[in-house]
Amino acid sequence: MTKVSRRTVILVAASAAGAAIVPFGLASAQDSTPVGGSLLDSLGLPELEITITDDGVQAPDSFEAGPVLLVVNNATASLVSFMLAEPPDGTTPEMVLESFARPVIDAWWAEANIPVVYDAMPGQTVKIAVLLPAGEYQVAATAGSPDEMSESTPIGIAPMSVTGDLAADAADAIESAATIEFGAYEFTIDGAIPAGPAIVKVTNTHVVLHHAIIFATDKLYSHDEAHAGVMSMMQGTPSAEGAFSLGDAPPVLATPVIGGGATIWIDVDFQPGFYAAICFVADPGQEVPHVMMGMIQVFEVAG
Ligand SMILES: [Cu+2]
């Protein structure tokens, strides 16, 4: 069984797809993320800017709660993973950073408030709108090559206090075309994900970390066909002719990993067609990717 880390989700997605393990990483996983313009960028949200250099993580000491535009600059020459988390009491920053660098998800992650965990390619600036409640957060970053499944290298960790109250309607503050909800090992897509640039809301109503890695498919399969196809790929058994397969193409989109209770909004830019959303994250202390428990959802983007 492949170990599934937060950092190497794209890679696992690639190996699940039977592709060679090559460092295409997020660059190609974000084909559906608009490069030129960001709809989120035009909303005028408060910008929470985080810069990651070889020397550490620069984050503001404090920030106001609310929907914010998280702007993460990767000023290193490495793929970096970053996280924004409010760890449970008794978890020191040293423990958080060391844990974040390890491939397996430690138990404390299930008790933490985790708005977002994501990757940034060398030199990339990542923008995600995040519903940020008050709390004592840690902003951590690690570096690693996308072709390594092993431990990554800690870069740094910085504390950040978020103060103030969220408005009652804060989770609806940003207009979105559709919502992808992470539940108990299942996705629910509310609304139709449109073709072209759009904002999609991503929310986690479960208790453990989830994400969606989205692959294009050749037709609209049933849930059972898609699940059976991924199971046979992950178990290394050849799939039948005409059966669901992820092929060799990299995913078209990887959402951030978010914890229970978290809400974010992402920019997307889908081509019309058929897709499958898959979660490769495992529960804390476990190695079984959620897709093996049925966390896969097929959907169509109408032209
Ligand atoms: Cu999951």
Q: Indicate the low-confidence ranges by residue numbers.
A: 1-32
The CATH topology name of the largest domain reads Immunoglobulin-like
Q: State the total count of DSSP E strands.
A: 17
Shape: globular
Order of helices and strands: HHEEEEEHEEEEEEEEHEEEE
Q: Any idea what the radius of gyration is?
A: 18 Å
What would CATH call the class of the largest domain?
Answer: Mainly Beta
- Measured between the Cα atoms of the first and last residue, the distance is 38 Å
pLDDT averaged residue by residue: 85
Bound molecules: copper (II) ion
What is the count of helical runs?
A: 4
Share of residues in strands: 35-45%
Total discrete domains = 2
Keywords:
303 residues; mainly beta; Immunoglobulin-like; 2 domains; eight-stranded mixed β-sheet; five-stranded mixed β-sheet; 11% helix; disordered N terminus; binds copper (II) ion
Architecture overview:
The chain is mostly beta strands. The protein folds into two domains: 35-168, Immunoglobulin-like (Sandwich), CATH 2.60.40.2550; 171-301, Immunoglobulin-like (Sandwich), CATH 2.60.40. 11% of the residues lie in helices and 36% in strands. It has four helices and 17 strands. The chain has helices at 9-16, 25-29, 93-100, 223-234; strands at 47-53, 56-58, 62-64, 66-74, 80-86, 113-120, 125-132, 135-143, 153-163, 178-182, 187-190, 196-204, 213-217, 253-254, 263-270, 273-278, 296-301. Strands 2-1-4-7-15-12-10-11 form an eight-stranded mixed sheet, with no helix packed on it. It is globular. Mean pLDDT is 85; it is low at 1-32. The chain binds copper (II) ion.
